[in-house]
Known about the structure:
With about 100 residues, the chain is α/β, with parallel strands linked by helices. It has one domain. The protein is about 30% helix and about 40% strand. It is built from three helices and five strands; from the N terminus they run H-E-E-E-E-H-E-H. Strands 1, 2, 3, 4 and 5 form a five-stranded mixed sheet that branches. The longest helix is centred in the middle third of the chain and has 12 residues.
Amino acid sequence: MSVMNDIYNYKERKKYLKSVLLNHVASGFCILEFGLSSASVPTNPTVVKSSGYNFTEAALEGLKGGLHKTAVQGPRSGDEKYRLSFYFKRSASLAA
């Protein structure tokens, strides 16, 4: 039973944020998991799943640029992890 409690508690410490849709030269996605410092700065971002290196780099830049801030509001626990999905839509104007 202790193992099940540990799994349940781990899942409870994750918050799934509203996804971000960005125009890009190709279509793809990247899901990042990260913590937040007391100043709401993302810490220890890790890639959960990605369509490739370019999408990972773009998602990390978006996270660093503050795209998570509108989704993270209110009180939070120091050990919470957040998951943010970035979806990239192919834009003809960017692909040219």
